[in-house]
Amino acid sequence: MQITYNWLKEYLDFPWQIDELTKKLTDTGLEVKAFEPNPQEAGDWVIELEVTPNRPDCLSLYGIAREMAAATGFALKSPDASWEEEETPVAQVASVTIEAPENCMRYCGRVIRGVKIAPSPEWMVKRLEAVGIRAINNVVDVTNYVLMELGHPLHSFDLNRLAGHQIIVRQARAGEILQTLDGQDRELDPERLVIADSDKAVALAGVMGGANTEVLDNTVDLLIESAWFNPVSVRRTSKKLGLRSESSYRFERGTDPDTALKALNRATALILQLAGGKAARGILDDYPKPPTLQTLQLRGSKIQQLLGLKVPQKALISIFERVGCQVDKIDNDTFSLLIPVHRKDLEREVDLVEEVSRLYGFEKFTSSTPMILMSPALPNRQARMERLSRENLVPLGFWEVMNYSFVNSIDWASMGFHRESMIALRNPMSTEQDVLRMSLIPGLLKNISRNMEQGESIVRVFEIGRVMRLSDKGEFIEETILAGAASGKPAGAVWAEKGFSLDFYGFKGLVDYLFSKFELPKPEYEPAESFLYRQGAYAGITVGDKNLGNVGILSSELSRKYGIEKEVFAFELVIDRSVQVASTQYSYKTLPKFPAVQRDISLLTPMEISSRQIMDEIRQDAVEYLESVELFDLYSGPKLPEGYRSVSFRITYRHPERTLQDTEVETWHQSIIEKLTRQFNVKLRTA
To answer: Which of 94, 90, 97, 92 is closest to 196 using CA atoms?
Structure first.
C-alpha cells in the first residue's frame, strides 16, 4: 500500500515532518516498509506501508488517517462529496436488481449524463502515478483515485451500451463468454458472480469490467457502480481465472458496505467537477439485508489482568469512541460495545484489550516481573516410549524411516488387506495414493528393497507412525505403531556387523529387550496366523489379556512382491495399547543374599503342545521357591520320533533366607517332570 505525504495531509492536518510521520505511523501499529521523495511532486514523499490481511480498513488514505486520528486525537477531515442534481429521477433512467444476495449484499449506482471524456488534470495524474496507477482518462482515473482515497472499488459503465439500461447482479450462465478489459475472452460457469444487463454479462463482479461496456472517448452517459461483494466469491473467481486487480485485492479482504455509498458520492462529485455533465436525482440502491453490528463485552478486570494496569473509565470511553465503537451500556466494570462494520479485526474481548493498550499508550505501562506458577509437566508415556525406541534401536544398527500415510488400494488389496477396512480419501492426490495405510510393514519392505538395490547387504529399519482402518462396525480406528524389519546376511557374515542375531529368536529377544527398556511387564508369545507372515513363524505379543503386537518372519510371497529373496524378520508394537499396561507403581527388591539353583529339563513333546502351555503348567502349581522358567532351546528334525519335537527349559530356584539343599531341589524338580508327563504325554529326553 503506497500513500503520499501531501495527500494524507488533506484528511489529517498534522504538524510532523516525514521522519516524525513515519515514527507516528509505526507507533499507531502500521509497518512502514520504505519512504522516498515523490518524483511527481517536489517537497512530497511516497510512503510504502505493509497492511496485515486482518486490517482491510487501512487499505486507503482515509483509513490510515482514521487510524492516526484515533491514536493522536487530531481531527479527521472527510473528502468533499457535494453537487447539484438534475430534476430527472434516476429510477426513470436505469435500474438495479440483485438476484444473488448471498454474494452481493449491496449494489448502488448513480447516473451521470452529458460527460466529456478527456485527460485528467495534472494534479490527479501525478498523484495516481506516485502510488503506481497509470492514468487513463478523467472518468476512469476518478474511480481509481477514490479507490486509493476511500479504499472502496468502483466501476464506470457506458450507460448507452447497457441493454435496457439495466444492471442485474447474478451468477454466470454455463458457457457464458465475457471479454474483460485486458482483452481476454473468459469462459464462465455458474460459480462466477457477474454484473449483467438485460442481455449479457458486462463485468466480473469485484474483479474486472467487461470490454463491451467500457468507457471510451465517445462515451456521454455513465452509470457508476459501487457495491459489496462476498470475499469468498471474489477470491474464487480471481484464482480460477488468474485475474488480480486492485479491486479484487480489497474485495477479497472484505470491504465496508456503508463505505460503498460514501465512495459513490465522492466519485460522482469528482466526475462532475472534471468531466462535466448532470447527475440524475436520487440513487439506485439495492440493499436487501444490511448487516447488524456485532456486540462485544469488555471487562475492566480483563484489561487489568492482561495489561497490568487499571485504565480509568473515562479514558476507556474516549478510546472506544475514537476507534468508532459505540458504547451501548456500562454495567459495573463491563462495557457492552457495538463494533463498526469496517473493523473486521475486532472479534474477541482480547482484541479490544489490544486497542486499549495501543491507544492508551505503551509508555504508561510500568515494568514488573510477572509471577509465573511453575508446575511439573505430566508424564507422557507415549512420547517417552517413542523416545526410548529411537535411543535403543539406533545403536543396534536400525535406521529410522518415515513413509507416506497415503497408499494404493489396489496394491494393498493384492497383499490381502480387506477393502472394506480401508479408509478412502475424498480428494486423493493421485490414484496411487487413494487410501490410508493400515500397516507399516509394506512401507518398511519398500525401504529394505530400495536399499538392497543400492548395494546394502544388511538392512535394518524401523518406523513410528499411525495406521488407520475401519472396524467391522464401521468405526474409525487410529493407532500409533512401532514397527521394525530387517533382512540380509546373517550376523557374523561381515566383521563390522553389529547388533543381534538376525533370526526369529533374535527378533523375539529384541522385543523382550524393548519391553525391559519401556519398563513394561514381561511379554508372552502366542502362536498365531497372519497373511503378512509365514505360517508357523508368527507370534502374537501379549501382556495379560491385551494383544500388543506381533513378531515373526514375513511371508515369502510378500517379500518377493518387493523384490526381496531373503528372509525378512519384522515386529509390530501398538504403542497406544502398550502404555496402558505400563505400571505406575514401582516396587523395589533387595539384591538376593543366597545363591540360586538351576535345573535344565529337555522334553520330547507332541507337536500340538506349545511351549507356552508347558511353561504355564510349571508355574501354575509351582513350588514356593521357584523363581523363573525360561525356554532356551527348541528343535525339530529327522532324528526325533515323528510328530514330536524337543523343547528345553531352564528352571531357577532360590530361597530368600537360606541356601537350598540339592535334595530338596531334586524332589521339587522330579515332581514337575512327573506332572508334565501325566498332563501332556511328554517324555524326558536323556540324549
So the answer is: 97
Q: CA 217: distance to chain centroid?
A: 51
Task: For 363-417, write each residue's pLDDT tens digit.
Answer: 888 777 777 888 777 778 899 999 999 999 999 889 999 999 999 999 999 999 9
The radius of gyration of the chain from alpha carbons, rounded to an integer in Å, stands at 40
Q: Please give the mean pLDDT across all residues of the chain.
A: 90
- 466, 572 in Cβ contact below 8 A? no
Q: How far apart are CA 73 and CA 61, in angstroms?
A: 17
Q: Which residues make Cβ contacts (< 8 Å) with residue 655, sequence separation at least 6?
A: 594, 625
Within 10 Å of residue 328's Cβ, how many Cβ atoms?
13
CATH of domain 2-72: 3.30.56.10
> 502 or 492: which carries more pLDDT confidence?
502
More confident residue, 3 or 495: 3
- Half-sphere exposure of residue 323: CA atoms within 13 angstroms, side-chain side: 27
The pLDDT score that the predictor gives to residue 493 is 46
Q: How many CB atoms lie within 10 A of CB 452?
A: 19
Residue 479 amino acid letter: E
In the block, cell 463494533 appears at 339
For the chain, what are the domain ranges? Answer: 2-72, 85-286, 294-360, 381-581, 597-684
> Which CATH number is associated with domain 85-286?
3.50.40.10
Distance between CA atoms of residues 546 and 84, nearest Å? 87
pLDDT beyond 70 at 687: no
CB atoms within 10 A of CB 220: 14
Question: Residue 216 has what pLDDT?
Answer: 94
Q: Say which CATH architecture domain 294-360 belongs to.
A: 2-Layer Sandwich (3.30)
Phi, psi of 440, deg, nearest 5:
-90, -15
The class level of CATH for 381-581 reads: alpha beta
* 60: nearest Cα among 223, 237, 256, 233: 256
Predicted pLDDT of residue 194: 96
Calpha distance 348→368 (Å, rounded): 26
Considering 122-131, 489-498, 583-592, 603-612, the range whose residues carry the highest mean pLDDT is 122-131
Residues 6+ apart with CB under 8 A from 43: 6
492, pLDDT greater than 50: no
Amino acid at 105: M
Please give the DSSP secondary-structure letter assigned to residue 35.
E
Report the C-alpha gap between 24 and 2 in whole angstroms.
16
Range 343-350, long-range pairs (CB < 8 A, 24+ positions): 343/57, 344/54, 344/55, 344/56, 344/57, 344/254, 345/54, 345/55, 346/294, 346/296, 347/294, 347/296, 348/296, 349/296, 349/297, 349/298, 349/299, 349/302, 350/302, 350/306
What's the Cα-to-Cα distance from 86 to each of 89, 184, 261, 275, 282, rounded to whole Å? Answer: 8, 38, 19, 16, 9
Positive or negative: CA dihedral 106, 111, 115, 117: positive
Q: Do domains 2-72 and 294-360 have the same CATH topology?
A: yes
What are residue 570's DSSP bridge partners? 485, 552
Coil, helix or strand for 531?
Answer: coil
Which residue, chain included where needed, has cell 479527521?
A: 76
From residue 53, alpha-carbon distances to 9, 34, 50, 248, 345 in Å are 25, 19, 10, 13, 9
Q: What is the pLDDT of residue 304?
A: 87
Give the integer Cα–Cα distance in Å for 198 and 200: 6
Q: Which CATH superfamily is domain 597-684 in?
A: Ferrodoxin-fold anticodon-binding domain (3.30.70.380)
Over residues 560-593, the pLDDT tens digits come to 999 999 999 999 999 999 998 887 676 777 888 8
Is 0.90 topped by the overall pTM? no
pLDDT(270) > 70: yes
